[in-house]
Amino acid sequence: MAYNESLAEKLRLNLRTKMSVEEKKMMGGLCIIVDEKMCVGIIKDEIMLRVNPELVDTLIQKQGCRLMDFTKRPMKGYIYIDETAFSTNKELQQWIQYALDYNPTAKSSKKK
User: Which among 105, 85, 110 has a CA at the least distance from the CA of 95?
Assistant: First the structure.
């Protein structure tokens, strides 16, 4: 198992009402694309969120949150959260909302 299927299902349930949602297996995990932009995902047992880079320093102070360092270097505007960051679905929704709030202004990847 490359990623936690239970977390994937929690993300699906929280994003099911979004109009343009697509799942792609990437980076050994699962990425969820919202409006053609990487928004959230799962790598192993952690949720990846693409958030406003200006909020990262504040967010990583919260329990269970850290910089995304997939390439062994921090990635600007990306964070990981583990299950200690949310004990309820409401808390998970709050984390997802950070990514959804940033999504309209995030740049989309160039299509090849």
Answer: 85
